[in-house]
Design brief:
about 40% helix, alpha/beta, globular, three-stranded mixed β-sheet
């Protein structure tokens, strides 16, 4: 009998990677959750053999229906989508909270809703929760604006405390730092200098090894590996070896035949570049990972090489050589 993985966020970067891998995995079927399965954009997914069902992360009943029959569920929530919501900005203005705080609270509620729905599924074997480290905890309170990390960590704590049966089926995937983040804007990208060289600046220690990952390609393999193992793992998902930003730029320079370097800036610099909460959020994220490590030194965390099952990943050397850098 076929196994079924239900993917939350099927149209996102992580969810699409999970779908890609499990569509090729013998004995598995893929079901994706979307708010509107009738949209024209859904057709390419159904054409590939993905079953699309209606589900809303704010509606537990819809998720319960969508999850029925699942052998495995991949759960991912999106903090950044909330940053674009007019409703959330109105709530921030009304309550006096920052937009970051509103999105933090909203992501936690969505994560709880997904978990409560998953807990109703009879026969569920794996609940794989996309999460990140608790930066406030692991930095001893030094970093308090890395809300998109901490919200996901709070969901994991809540599941362990409130849904013990689901917790027994849960594995946590801490997806590494997206290697493609530079595509989001010039603040995160190599910048061409007047002498033809390139420089990248982030508020991060230049020599700290960072778990970078080609998310669209590799996340599905992390999830596949976790379904092949007993639940209870906390996996830090990244490609090849961890890579410092200095090394990243060295590889960038070699691949493009240019001089390239990394020069750290500050959280305040980032806040000025992207005012309104985004810059401070991302700035503290980079500063935290540079000082405490992406996983904060959490002793529960294991690496892909520790899994004991096949888990192909993309090294940063391979990624950088094959990427199209023409836009920078």
């Amino acid at each position: 009998m076929s196994k079924l993985i239900v993917v939350v966020g099927i149209t996102g970067t992580q969810g699409a990677s999970v779908a890609d891998v499990f569509l090729q995995e013998p004995g598995w079927k893929v079901r994706g959750i979307t708010r509107d399965p009738t949209k024209p954009s859904a057709k390419p997914l159904t054409d590939r053999g993905i079953e699309l069902v209606k589900g809303d992360l704010d509606d537990q009943a819809s998720l319960e229906a969508a999850f029925q029959g699942a052998t495995a569920i991949y759960s991912v929530t999106d903090f950044w989508q909330g940053m674009k919501s007019p409703k959330h900005h109105e709530e921030a203005a009304k309550t006096g909270k920052t937009i970051n705080e509103i999105c933090y609270e909203y992501e936690i509620e969505q994560g709880k809703t997904v978990a409560r729905a998953a807990a109703t599924v009879k026969g569920l074997e794996h609940f794989i929760c996309s999460s990140l480290s608790d930066s406030r905890k692991w930095s001893n309170g030094k970093y308090t604006w890395n809300y998109h990390f901490d919200s996901k960590a709070q969901v994991v704590y809540w599941i362990r405390d409130n849904l013990p049966d689901l917790a027994k089926k849960m594995s946590v995937l801490q997806v590494g730092c997206y290697a493609t983040n530079w595509q989001s804007g010039p603040a995160a990208a190599p910048q061409k200098q007047s002498d033809g060289s390139y420089k990248m600046s982030l508020p991060c220690d230049p020599n700290t090894p960072i778990p970078l990952v080609l998310t669209r390609k590799d996340v599905g393999y992390f999830v596949r590996a976790l379904t092949q193992l007993p639940p209870g793992k906390t996996l830090l998902g990244y490609g090849g070896e961890k890579t410092s930003w200095s090394e990243f730029m060295r590889l960038f320079g070699e691949a493009n035949g240019v001089k390239a370097s990394f020069e750290p800036n500050t959280v305040d610099d980032y806040d000025k570049i992207m005012p309104g909460g985004m810059g401070r959020e991302l700035g503290e994220m980079f500063a935290y990972m540079g000082e405490y490590g992406y996983d904060g030194g959490d002793p529960e965390v294991i690496n892909p090489k520790d899994l004991g099952v096949p888990c192909p990943t993309t090294s940063m050397e391979e990624y950088i050589k094959n990427e199209d850098w023409s836009s920078v």
